[in-house]
TrEMBL record:
The lineage of its organism: Bacteria, Bacillati, Actinomycetota, Actinomycetes, Mycobacteriales. The keyword Metal-binding applies. CDD domains: Rieske_RO_Alpha_PhDO_like. InterPro entries: Cholesterol_7-desaturase (IPR050584), LigXa_C (IPR045623), Rieske_2Fe-2S (IPR017941), Rieske_2Fe-2S_sf (IPR036922). It comes from Nocardia jiangxiensis. It comes from the Bacteria. Pfam families: LigXa_C, Rieske. This is Rieske 2Fe-2S domain-containing protein. The keyword Kinase does not apply.
Amino acid sequence: MLSVENNELLTRTGSGTPMGQLLRRYWVPALLSEEVAEPQCAPVRLTLMGESLVVFRTADGRLGALEEHCAHRQASLYYGRNESEESRDGQCGLRCVYHGWKYGIDGRCIDMPNEPATSKFKEHIRIRSYPVAERGDMIWIYLGPSRDIPALPDLEWAVIPETHRYLSKRLQRSNFAQAMEGGIDSSHVSFLHSDARLWNPDWTHAKDSTRDHLTDDGSPKFFVEPTDYGMLIGARRNAVDGQYYWRITQWLMPWYNLVARDGDGPITAHAWVPIDDENCWAFSITYNPDKALTKEQTDHYRHGGSVHAQVLADGSYLPTRNSDNDYLIDRTLQKTVSFTGIRGIAIQDVAMQESMGRVVDRTKEHLGSSDAAVIAARKRLLAEARALAEDATVAPSGLDPASQRVRSASAILPRDVSWVDATAESRQAAQRHYQPS
């Protein structure tokens, strides 16, 4: 369990908090590119770690991320006009509709039509702007000190061809740490995502090696290897013929995970980003580094298959199956087919993580050996947040793009073989994706 003090440190991410200061040193996955796809599109309102922003793409295709409120009377720029160079001042920018103050992507006030033409007042007005970039169908924003802007992440899914990946986004009503911890907990897959029929000893089924390994051994032994980017997590289960089945998860600072890959199939990745202390954005990525995804695969993901979720069409990104409707749990399905009675891997995770409360009281937990990765991730985040709070010149780990070029894996290995050594090659991202074009 965590003390109240440590739980506060882990979960509070606002400006000025130790964890908030740590997380702001990383590029933040903020929006899907499709949300600001068109030049001169409507601004998008966004909250990250308690900070209110608007993001827009100018008429000439540049991206801007500004604090949400106009410097004049604090009206929201979400309602602003995204103007082209054909506007009265001849520049692209976002104009507040209250009194017409207009801002460029650097936050400078470039027009102030309610002041005399001879006034130089606008030259003294500037709102906060944030570095913003686009990579891998994702919009990334940096909220930290300008002197410490790192290179953009080199996660494999972000640099492969667009046809090889599928991204989705959903709103989760819990603190980011609860969601992230679910992503590195490999023991729950034997239960939460299982088929209820597998728990009936009289039911016969066609053998599926992965499913059988997960069901036959629901108490994996965990091994955690610290790395310069985060942690390498091995979950070991017993397999036939005196072997072990290994599910190998990657956790990358501060909010990424790569779920164990089955064979040469697609890889699943997640990013868990705080909106505030009680809500987070969950970005889910399915990608195949070796070939394009098929239409059948992407259609499956688009309709809530695998780790993706169908969301409401109102722009909130709230899943259609949510706490307001008890995730549409089907008790008959729970008795007959699904262990949970809740449809969809993503929503099964959401239901459990949100059911803990917005910020779980970790003093009430009773953690076991299967929680080794969760415990290690908490300790790593807490230690790095404290180190940075004590010395602002300390460089957080996991910022080197080269260290992020990793994959997850799974393997059946003889019991006397090192899982780290045997899977080293399969855990490396393909270097061809990083070669200059």
